[in-house]
Amino acid sequence: MKRSPGPILVLVVVAVVAAVLAGGYLWQQGNPAREEGPAASSAKARPTASAKGANVAAGADTSRRPSLSAEELARDPASLRTRVAEILKGSKQPARDEALRDLAIVLARHHPTGASAALQELLARGGENSGEVHHFVSHFSSELAQIDPAATAAWLATLPESLKFAAATSLAPLWARTDLAGATAWAETLSDLSLRATALRRIGQELAVAGDPTANAGWAQRLARTPEAVQHAELIGRLWAAGDIQGAFQWAVALEDSATRHTAVVAVASVVAERDPQVASGWVAGFPEGELRNQAASAVSLKWSESNPEAAARWLSSFGNQQLLELGLQAFGRRWLQSDAARAAEWIRNAPISRQVRDYLLPGG
Prior knowledge:
By secondary structure, the chain is mainly alpha-helical. It has 22 helices and no strands. The chain has helices at 7-30, 33-45, 49-57, 70-75, 77-88, 93-110, 114-126, 131-147, 149-156, 161-178, 180-189, 193-210, 213-224, 233-243, 245-253, 258-275, 277-285, 291-305, 309-317, 322-339, 341-350, 355-361.
């Protein structure tokens, strides 16, 4: 006959169950996130507004905040001014410059009319001589010039005089790449003589790097007929000679002002020497004796020395002018010694030059 559990066993079971339940309750109290679910855990992970403020106060760089979208710029000009203020509060100069460049590019591509508001905010905070102002103007002008150079020129006209140079320096060469006639016509309409000269010089420099020699010569001839010709004599001489050496030489020697004439002739001589030093040497040797011939000879010898320094030195010596030879050797003698020390040293020791110049070139004897 089976016996039923006694009272003592029943009490033991009840005690065990109660202990298990109590333990689970205490464990849950120590780990409340287990019952709060993903949303509650995420909420606890997010910093509060006061924590965010503490991060900013601790030196967070607000200039690194992503640039505003085109839609934001167009919808709320006030946000644009706020963005400029944030950039200027950035703690590091490189970060500010990068943020201003990004802002200028966004404006040029999507909201050009917003550039004026941004610039006004920059001017209000830093003035016309501020590096940030010039940085913004240069980048905006460069970007917009590649999209719409005429619009860039119109924007430039609204700028303070001191900032027009930064814009023109960026605009002129970029416009010349795609529309030389348009860029030149714009530059010639600039009323400020210094600004016009800057724009024309930048156009010419662009042509010297990438232009067609024949087109360059035609552009130089046009510039030679303007009031700016005196300021750009060297540039005109080099561009003109690249496509028409004889015409460039005739123009150069006919210039009335002696200083301008010398500058132009030397520029033409340098171009000829780059192509064929021997032709250039024969050409310069036919000049009348005097300062003009000496300057042209120095320019030719310097170019010639890059390929044959001994021939250049012998040619200079043929003029029978000690000072001319000494100036030439001081200009390229040490480079010659580096490329052919033995031959150069022997030639210099026997050259008809002063001891002072010889000691300068050969300090050890």
